[in-house]
Each structure stands twice: as structure tokens, then as C-alpha cells.
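ok new one. same drill as before - C-alpha cells go in, u give me an amino acid for every spot. 80 of them this time. try not to just spam alanines like last time pls lmao
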């Protein structure tokens, strides 16, 4: 259920909790546009129980255009 998911996107912070278990919670590498950033919970397949997927879309305030890519989304998480 969507009520089991808590996702908060701040200008400089992202938190995601599922069933009150922390998935990620921390400072973003750089600022995001809060009005253009969002999250959704989607269901996939017809099997029971249906597979659910959380999609988080973060829009950077400043485009990197080939330089200064974020090494991580949330500081302290593994590098991409």
C-alpha cells in the first residue's frame, strides 16, 4: 500500500522508508528542483502478489552537462 511508503524529497535531502524501515535518508549530493522532482509506486505483472516498484525522479537545479556528475545520490551511499 502507498501508506506503507514514506518518501520525502527536499531541496537538499531525500528520505525513503518502507514499513518504517529506512532504505535511504540523507543529504543529496547537490540541490534538486522540488517542484520538478517526484516519486511513484507502480504495480507490475498479474502474478499474486503483484511486484511493486518505487520510482524516484530527481530534477537537478543545475544541469551537469557532462561534467560534475554526482558520484552518489545520497551522500554516504555507494558510488554509481
Amino acid at each position: 500500500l502507498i501508506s506503507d511508503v514514506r518518501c520525502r524529497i527536499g531541496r537538499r535531502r531525500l528520505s525513503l522508508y518502507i514499513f518504517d524501515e529506512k532504505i535511504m535518508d540523507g543529504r543529496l549530493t547537490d540541490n534538486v528542483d522540488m517542484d520538478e522532482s517526484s516519486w511513484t509506486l507502480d504495480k507490475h505483472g498479474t502474478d499474486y502478489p503483484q511486484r511493486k516498484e518505487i520510482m524516484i525522479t530527481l530534477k537537478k537545479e543545475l544541469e551537469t552537462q557532462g561534467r560534475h556528475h554526482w558520484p552518489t545520490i545520497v551522500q554516504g551511499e555507494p558510488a554509481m
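The chain has no helices and five strands. and btw The CA atoms of residues 37 and 59 lie 5 Å apart.
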